[in-house]
Amino acid sequence: MNLSKQVFQFLVAFSVVLYAIACTEQNSQKKHVGANGAAAPAIPDESKLIAIADTVYKGLTFKVYADAKLDNKYHTVYLQVKDKEGKPFNSSSLDYYPQMDMGLMKHGGPFEHPVALGEGWYRGSMVFIMADIPDMGPGWHLYTTLETKGKKDTIALKLPVSAAKTMRTMSSGTRDDSRVFISNLLPDTLKQGKHPIKFLMSRMEHHDFPPLDGYLIKLKTNMPAMGHGSSGNKDAEAIGQGYYEGEVNFSMAGQWEIIVELWKDGKKANQDDIKYQVYIIK
């Protein structure tokens, strides 16, 4: 093999290596691979989110986004923080939580502490257990806490929460855990057939709502207009942190209801009826 051919092959191989390294770096930046090698949560596509609120505090800009316009349901809420130069602001001390101010009283709602996604983005899920009530207090806020230079600051951002068209969060008294809140994470409309179903269950403790495990959520589907249900439903079992997963089957198009029973230690525990409405299309 002559020298020129060897040089050519070397340059080709070297170019392939450089390309592979560049691709790896780009993928790493997109996925934000952590120190343990596992891919961290991805940075959200801002164009696919709904802008909810924003404010400026001590040179930092806080912007709240969500998966949809907020109503009294389960939502994924994002916070983006930038410094006065417009650069992403990352902090391991940042936290946030929802709170409803009704004037004479305040209460929170079920929520998950935010996960830092990188590039100034944070993500957390929460349930707004009721809509804002006109002329009854300021309503819902996202309270963001941040520690800088040994001092803890709290920033409040107003969250407009409207009444949901279809109820997805219900409450019931129980035998052992007082009043609990059960959020159904299904959309209002689904296609005919089988679907995984997920719930978040929380216990009410004064104004806090810690996650509640240890139950079995029994499921039954019913089509009131036709007077029948459907087979193939699987009861929702606890998977941790208050979440439960099961499966529901809708055998034809039309209006359906999902009837829920909470069971604990082999006995029915809910004291109130729990039903969710869902519209099925072909």
UniProtKB/TrEMBL annotation:
Boundaries of every YtkA-like domain copy: 187-260
Superkingdom of source: Bacteria
InterPro entries the UniProt entry points to: YtkA-like_dom
Any Pfam family hit: YtkA
Protein name per the record: YtkA-like domain-containing protein
The organism of origin for this protein: Sphingobacterium puteale
Lineage, highest ranks first: Bacteria, Pseudomonadati, Bacteroidota, Sphingobacteriia, Sphingobacteriales
